[in-house]
Design brief:
The structure holds 2 protein chains of 2 kinds.
Chain A (H helix, E strand, L loop, with lengths): L3 E8 H8 L14 E10 L8 E4 L2 E4 L5 H10 L1 H7 L1 E10 L5 H12 L3 E5 L4 H9 L5 E4 L5 H7 L4 E3 L4 H14 L4 E6 L3 H17 L2 E7 L9 H4 L1 H4 L8 E5 L19 E3 L4 E3 L10 H11 L7 H20 L4 H9 L13 E2 L6 E2 L2 E5 L2 E6 L28
Parallel strand pairs in A: 2-5, 2-6, 6-7, 7-8, 9-10, 9-11, 11-12
Antiparallel strand pairs in A: 1-5, 3-4, 13-16, 14-15, 16-17
Helix pairs in contact in A: 1-3, 2-12, 4-5, 7-8, 12-13
Chain B lengths: L1 H25 L5 E5 L4 E5 L6 E6 L4 E6 L5 E6 L4 E6 L4 E7 L4 E7 L4 E6 L4 E6 L4 E7 L4 E6 L5 E6 L4 E6 L4 E7 L4 E6 L5 E6 L4 E6 L4 E7 L15 E3 L5 E5 L5 E6 L4 E7 L4 E6 L5 E6 L4 E6 L4 E7 L4 E6 L2
Antiparallel strand pairs in B: 1-2, 1-28, 2-3, 4-5, 5-6, 6-7, 8-9, 9-10, 10-11, 12-13, 13-14, 14-15, 16-17, 17-18, 18-19, 20-21, 21-22, 22-23, 24-25, 25-26, 26-27
The chains are: A alpha/beta, B mainly beta.
């Protein structure tokens, strides 16, 4: 027996009937409401969502599940419920371990007719999921795994990636560095596999936009004096030549936070800290950002909206918009709309849309310090024959994934 | 004798001055008012020289502005202070405040019923304010992020956009609730009604178009798309719009595309694009329809356009993030 916990089920219809009370009596006898349910699939105790702590009580990053992002989008659908005669619902499905994801998903699909799923799981979990859903009429939204291989090698028709890929975020960062003429870069790489993946993506971006890596060093967090060459930022940044910027890849974050101002040269730090490429930021002031941030903070008990929350939010929003624009609760029509290159309002300026080749959501990326969005990329002047957004990440001819052919 | 005559004429001038002062506001000053979201002020400009006559400090984040019917008062929605400031047009100072819902942006005044309808972007409601009692008498539920409001000439119907819902609600003001919705373009922002009262034009910021609503049927009767030369569809983000008094021409500010579109209303064809400043949103025509003022939100300036030649004649530096322009003419 699969252990599945249905933690929350939010049905919008009842709420909306109250909020827009009396609307129905002005119209004719209502047609029956259809239902569109989005499943939210996650793993209990997922280590990616454990808070990063400096010590027991000092939490540096809360890293919560982005479920509230999906919730906010469902609540936004309230007003549409009446016009479309569709009730939108969100069902949270939490499993005990990654290997249970596929069976839980299939059970929700087969017994409860759910066809859209926001998947909050690490990249490795997608292999089994991809096998299980192949050829089925379901659509999965990857809202939390930035790994490039999911878009390039795994390359599955049933998955849309709403979180920007590593290649996209690194391209955005390097565009900004190059536009500032900060071309010479020192790379500090952490011991985690995620750090290696980030550096690989960064190197790709450096090559693409004509920057230069003038030194690359692996660090090892610790205080062992015998390993000071690897754990002391002063020594790690001492190089026989000058550089413009220090790039740090550190998924664990604890080392990265001790790099700025501890370097031998007065150089800015980018990557894991200080100037981070993100999908969303709590200080974004344009394109409706303050309204979305405030809706999210109200729903999340004060927590600030982050990249994963945005990716879960836009996934649900795309489903709702597909229903609105096709005027139907029919899955195939909605899927065709979502995958058909149509634009969605992502609150980041240029409309976001799905790339036909790898089903990555093309979107702007923010380069943010803790208190400000320094730039929204693509940087003006980085041109593309179709969409400037495609200067970020894998363009059609750059990826082995050709889902549109 | 000379002294007496001089004194007399002085008295006369003084009497005349006190006589003229209250009527001057009614007689229209011609002054131009610019609300600046991030300077928390309204700059008052001379209509001929465009020099700043006065800076009026307002509550935080002034945005939409409307005159009372007799033009003695100017109301200003202040988004971060949750109030509408009341400005005395003769004195050019804030003389009072009306409390609104959270984050007021645009509003409409019903002078006859002494009411203000204001969209509260953050609470998904339209607040109905009793002007004389300074009280919110009702909050009408809308879709998320209501923005544009338009009140019918008889005050019985209020139209409101929901930016998130991609809807326009038709609200019965007597019943105090939405009675019908119509689906429009993506991220609908603002309205303008054609002077013949038959159509309502709605800008859809993200789909880069105008949706035209037939008011009698309350149904979409057409769309107008924009594409200035050399621009991409995604750059076009229309927000503000206005009609000439004869209803023949519309001007639409295209936001990110930094142009104002000139539309021939009967044929619904775009005739011309005029280059303006960065993120142009607010557009206002002078009463004689000869001059158009465009607020460039990210240029911190106003572009002045000569309507006949369709040319930008001057740009006036104002405060930070100018939202809109109204003219006492």
């Amino acid at each position: 027996m699969i252990s599945v916990t249905v933690l929350a089920r939010i049905v919008v219809a009842s709420v909306c009937a109250a909020c827009l009370a009396g609307a129905a009596d002005a119209q004719e006898a209502p047609a029956p409401q259809s239902q569109v349910t989005v499943g939210y699939l996650s793993i209990e105790g997922d280590p990616r969502h454990q808070p990063i702590r400096a010590s027991e009580r000092l939490i540096l990053r809360p890293r919560e599940h982005p479920f509230v992002g999906a919730q906010v989008a469902i609540e936004e659908a309230q007003a549409l419920s009446r016009v479309l005669r569709i009730d939108f619902a969100l069902e949270r499905i939490a499993v005990k371990s990654a290997d249970m994801l596929a069976s839980a998903l299939m059970q929700a699909h087969e017994t409860r007719g759910i066809r859209f799923f926001v998947v909050d799981a690490p990249a490795e979990a997608f292999r089994a999921l991809a096998g299980a859903v192949q050829g089925r009429d379901v659509l999965l939204f990857n809202a939390t795994a930035p790994d490039d291989w999911l878009r390039r090698e795994l390359c599955v028709r049933e998955i849309v990636h709403t979180l920007p890929s590593l290649a996209m975020t690194m391209d955005g960062l390097v565009q900004h560095l190059v536009s500032r003429k900060w071309r010479d870069i020192l790379v500090l790489e952490g011991p985690a596999a995620a750090d290696a993946a980030m550096v690989r993506a960064f190197e790709g971006s450096v090559k693409k936009f004509g920057a230069r890596i003038v030194g690359k060093r692996e660090f090892k967090p610790g205080t062992d004096p015998r390993e000071r060459e690897k754990n002391n930022p002063l020594l790690l940044t001492a190089l026989n030549r000058d550089y413009d910027v220090i790039f740090v890849a550190d998924d664990a974050f604890d080392f990265a936070r001790q790099v700025p101002y501890r370097t031998i040269r007065a150089r800015p730090v980018v990557g894991a800290i200080d100037l981070e490429p993100v999908a969303w930021h709590w200080t974004w002031e344009r394109h409706g950002g303050p309204q979305l941030n405030s809706r999210f903070q109200r729903a999340a008990g004060g927590r600030r909206m982050e990249s994963l929350d945005w990716a879960a939010w836009i996934a649900v929003k795309m489903v709702v918009q597909a229903a609105l624009r096709t005027g139907s609760a029919d899955f195939k029509a909605q899927r065709a709309f979502i995958l058909g290159g149509n634009g969605f309002d992502g609150y980041k300026g240029l409309a976001v849309s799905v790339r036909p080749w790898d089903q990555q959501l093309r979107q702007a990326v923010f380069l943010a310090t803790p208190n400000a969005v320094v730039a929204s990329v693509p940087v003006e002047g980085f041109l593309h024959r179709v969409s400037t957004l495609d200067t970020l990440g894998d363009d059609e001819q750059e990826t082995p994934c050709k889902l549109h052919r | 004798m000379g002294f007496v005559r001089q004194a007399l004429s002085l008295i006369l001038v003084a009497t005349l001055a006190t006589f003229l002062a209250p009527t001057q506001a009614v007689a229209k000053t011609g002054l131009i008012f610019v609300s600046n979201e991030k300077s928390d002020n309204i700059l008052v400009l001379d209509p001929k020289t465009y020099k700043v006559v006065k800076e009026i400090k307002t509550s935080r984040r002034p945005r939409d502005m409307h005159f009372s019917a007799d033009r003695s008062r100017l109301y200003v929605a202040c988004g971060d202070a949750d109030v509408i400031d009341i400005i005395d047009v003769a004195k050019l100072e804030v003389i009072g405040r009306l409390a609104t819902g959270p984050s007021p942006e645009t509003f409409a005044i019903d002078d006859a019923r002494r009411r203000i309808y204001v969209a509260s972007e953050e609470s998904a409601t339209v607040s109905v304010i009793d002007i004389d009692r300074n009280k919110i008498v009702q909050a009408i539920k809308t879709g998320e992020e209501p923005e544009g409001v338009h009140l019918s000439e008889d005050g019985k119907t209020l139209y409101v956009t929901s930016e998130v819902g991609n809807l326009v609600h038709r609200i019965d003001t007597e019943a105090g609730r939405a009675v019908q919705d119509v689906v429009v373009g993506t991220r609908p922002r603002r309205f303008a009604a054609t002077p013949d009262r038959k159509e309502l034009w709605v800008t859809a910021e993200l789909s880069g178009e105008i949706t035209i609503i037939d008011r009698a049927k309350f149904a979409v009767s057409g769309t107008i798309a924009f594409l200035p030369p050399g621009m991409r569809k995604s750059d076009v983000t229309p927000v503000g719009l206005t009609f000439t008094r004869d209803g023949k021409t519309a001007f639409v500010a295209l936001g990110h595309a930094a142009h104002v579109a000139v539309v021939d209303v009967p044929s619904r064809k775009v005739e011309f694009y005029i280059l303006v400043g960065k993120r142009s949103w607010g557009v206002t025509l002078a009463r004689d329809d000869r001059t158009l003022f465009v607020a460039n939100g990210l240029g911190d300036d106003i572009t002045v356009i000569d309507v006949r030649s369709r040319k930008a004649t001057v740009s006036i530096p104002v405060g930070r993030v100018p939202w809109g322009v109204v003219i006492d003419d």
